[in-house]
């Protein structure tokens, strides 16, 4: 399977459990890997035959900034679910980093891998 990816997509948003986190936007960085078959797009040279990473990026930004959540776990599950349901991919890896969460660490975060068959339990 082929891979379309987005690396270090930067979004500033409200996220967190603590009261101080709900008052100030924080930077999140997303790494997305989507497994798909790119042969049709390679043959046609048509963006409509592939996963448009610009469209996926826009959807992620819109989703992350529309309705704040408290946990990164919630956010990555939501993103994986809409990517699998709305784009022609068989598997998605969603990794989100929250660099300001732990001052002693360069970054912390959550990473999940979901397939078309395991999105709903």
Average pLDDT taken over every residue: 94
Low-confidence stretches: none
3D shape = elongated
Give the neighbour order of strands across the main sheet: 1-2-3-4
The main pleated sheet reads as: 4 strands, antiparallel
Give the N-terminus to C-terminus distance in angstroms: 24 Å
Q: Secondary-structure element order, as H and E?
A: EEHHHEE
Q: Would you count the extended β strands for me? A: 4
Strand percentage lies at 25-35%
User: Structural class from helices and strands?
Assistant: alpha+beta
- Backbone CA Rg: 15 Å
Task: Count up the helices.
Answer: 3
Assembly context of the chains: single chain
Query: What share of residues is helical?
Result: 25-40%
Task: Considering the chains and any ligands shown, give keywords for the structure.
121 residues, 4 strands, four-stranded antiparallel β-sheet, 3 helices, alpha+beta
What can be said about this structure in brief?
The protein contains three helices and four strands, in the order ββαααββ. It is α+β, with helices and mostly antiparallel strands and 121 residues long. The model has no long low-confidence stretch (mean pLDDT 94).
Provide a descriptive summary of the structure in words.
The chain has 121 residues and is α+β, with helices and mostly antiparallel strands. It has helices at residues 39-44, 53-66, 72-86, and strands at 2-13, 26-36, 91-97, 109-115. A 4-stranded antiparallel β-sheet has the order 1-2-3-4, covered by helices on one side. The radius of gyration is 15 Å and the shape is elongated.
